[in-house]
Write a structure and sequence with these properties.
By secondary structure, the protein is α+β, with helices and mostly antiparallel strands. The chain has a domain of 100 residues: Gyrase A, domain 2 (2-Layer Sandwich), CATH 3.30.1360.20. Helix content is 42%, strand content 15%. It has four helices and six strands, in the order ββααββαββα. A four-stranded antiparallel sheet has the order 3-4-6-5, covered by helices on one side. Strands 1-2 form a two-stranded antiparallel sheet.
Length: 164
């Protein structure tokens, strides 16, 4: 028995659908390995985008590290925010997304039931830039307004959780 998945602009045969699903599994596997982070030591030099003021970026990253930002692979600022409800997580995601669009600078964001991990880096030219540090500070300001909680107080999606 043949099945055809059709949309207005797309028709997939069973073989194509199987390939697509297989590809999706590979991408999920790749994404899961990507979330395993290796943070740099405080003494490791930063990779700064061409054309940026190195002293300014160094100083701003030092301040961000004091605010619990981590540095991944010399050029990615990473922080996880925890929230009491999933609604607050999505509110924070939306606030960051809207500001990112207005600044024409997007992060990688990973959403769970009770947290949002934000990763800032500049792709072209590669490295850290003032856009990254500005947006990291913006994230901290907005998270404070929305109301973060400690990790153990955040909503979870496991059988032992009392949150729904």
């Amino acid at each position: 028995m043949a099945f055809w998945l059709s949309t207005r602009h797309l028709t997939l045969s069973p073989r194509s659908l199987g390939a697509l699903l297989s590809s999706s599994r590979r991408h999920r596997a790749a994404a899961s390995t990507r979330t395993k982070t290796t943070y740099t030591s405080p003494n490791m030099p930063l990779h700064i985008s061409d054309g940026q003021d190195k002293a300014q970026i160094d100083e701003e990253v030092e301040v961000l590290r004091e605010q619990n930002w981590n540095l991944e692979r010399e050029s990615i600022l990473v922080k996880t925010y925890h929230f009491k409800t999933y609604t607050k997580v999505t509110d924070f995601h939306q606030v960051v997304a809207v500001r990112s669009k207005s600044k024409n600078h997007h992060p990688e964001m990973i959403t769970t039931a009770g947290s949002l991990t934000v990763r800032w880096t500049t792709h072209i030219p590669h490295g850290l830039s003032a856009k990254d540090t500005f947006m990291a500070r913006y994230c901290d300001e907005q998270a404070k307004v929305i109301g973060t909680v400690k990790q153990n107080e955040a909503q979870r999606c496991d059988p032992g959780s009392t949150a729904s």
